[in-house]
Amino acid sequence: MTGTGAVRTGRPGALARLPGRVPPLVADAALAAALFLLTLGPGRVADGRGFALQSALVLPLVWRRRAPRSVFGVIAAAALVQWLLGVQLPADAALLVALGTVTARAPSRSAWAAGLVAAAGAVLAAARWAPEGRFLASGAAMAAAVAASALLGANTRVRRAARARRLARLERDRDERERRAVEEERARIARELHDSVTHGLSVVVALADALGHARPADACAVTARIAETGRQALGDMRRALGLLQDAGPDAGTDAGTDAGTDAGSGAGPGGGRRSPPGIGQLGALCARMEAAGLVTRLRVDGEAAGVPAAAQLTVHRLVQESLTNVLRHAPQGTRAEVRVSCAPGAVTVEVTDDGRAAGTGRPGSAGAGLGLTGMRERAAAFGGVLEAGPRPGDGWRVFVRLDPGGAS
Questions:
Q1: How far is CA 397 from CA 317, 336, 356, 389, in A?
Q2: Between vectors from CA 275 to CA 177 and to CA 254, what angle results, nearest 5°?
Q3: CB of 228 within 8 A of CB of 263?
């Protein structure tokens, strides 16, 4: 199963973390205070009336992000009172800040209405306070300031929407990756169950058939083999199903305990789970096949210790499924040969038998069943392509070359 890893980019410094930690209300209060102080100076606010208008124009900005339309309405009303009283104050810039906030955060209809109100205010201000003969120039300058504020707000809205779409897309991609990972894990567990249970049951069936023809002196040995194979198949199944609990808080407890209750179930010393089967267990696998009536010869070349555990499990399952197919479909007296070659950067697996192939293919082996599909997927996970088909003359051949270092 493929995994995804997190990339650490380093711990940000205090200055980098500060902007994200300042609450919006505090930031807006600081903006209002700065604007109030910058527009408050000698000769600008001559009396209490001017100070009150100054406060009414600037202080509502503290809540501009919480209630953008209400704040704009309050500031616009204060600006209208200021115009009616004929008091000219630089704090009128607060109306532009409020307009930008409405354009960025409020619905489009409210943004258009606020823009029209601000434009009307600019025309009224130019008509009353523009120097003689400079009405058009003053009006154009104020209209440009209104347009710039609205455009800045609109740009903020667009960037926020793009960021939201990007975050939503990243979230969808993450969910899709998680869904694919779950599907891959389920498919992997299904393959494990198929390989272990099918192999165990095939051996049990073969031994049970042999029991009917066995001499009384050999019946006990055959029965013991059946019980041992059944216990091992149950243990392999419990180990595969235990993987489903690995993500939970009790992972590795119940499944591991169950897996260790039967002999040969996959539990190691001390009651813990043993490692997955690998190349080293192919001898025991071939011995079970021999006991079931399939004469099997094994040859392993090279050092298996350097092959990763996941690749060894793949080799074991490929051999197990191939021999199980021979046991199920080849006639009695068939001989099988397993060759595994471990070389730096490559592992080759070849399983052949001399059984007579029925028709153009062995039933259950060349079709689209879970067995062959699972074998192909296991091989593909390590960059291999499975070759399975009849040999010239009689028999069947399965061959695959794996790249242990190229797991997908």
A1: 16, 10, 12, 6
A2: 75
A3: yes
Q: Which of 53, 123, 40 is nearest to 81 (CA)?
A: 53
Where does residue 265 rank: exposed (0-12), middle (13-18), buried (19+ CB within 10 A)?
Answer: buried
Quote the CA–CA distance of 309 and 317 in Å, as a whole number. Answer: 12
Token digits of residue 69: 């339309």
Tokens for 352? 């052949």
Strand ranges, E, within 142-195: none
- The whole-angstrom separation of Cα 127 and Cα 329 is 100
The residues near 277 (Cβ < 8 Å, ≥ 6 apart) are 285, 312, 313, 316
Q: How far is CA 113 from CA 38, 76, 324, in A?
A: 29, 12, 78
3-state secondary structure at position 134: coil
pTM over 0.70: no
DSSP structural state of residue 273: B
Q: Which SS3 state, helix, strand or coil, does residue 339 take? A: strand
127 sits in which H/E element: helix 108-129
Write out pLDDT tens, residues 287-346.
888 888 888 999 999 988 888 888 888 898 899 888 988 888 888 888 999 999 998 889
CA dihedral in degrees (200, 205, 206, 210; nearest 10)?
A: 140
Task: Find, among 152, 252, 234, the residue nearest to 196 by Cα.
Answer: 234
Contact of 389 with 375, CB cutoff 8 Å: no
Buried b (16+ CB within 10 A) or exposed e, 177-213: eeeeeeeebeebbebbbbbbebbbebbbebbeebeee
> Tens digit of pLDDT for each residue in 263-290?
333 444 444 455 678 899 999 889 888 8
40 in Cβ contact with 59 (< 8 Å): no
For residue 84, what are the contacts with CB-CB under 8 A and spacing of at least 6?
none
The amino acid present at 218, given as its one-letter code, is D
Give the max Cα distance, the chain: 126
* pLDDT single digits (tens) 295-307: 899 999 998 888 8
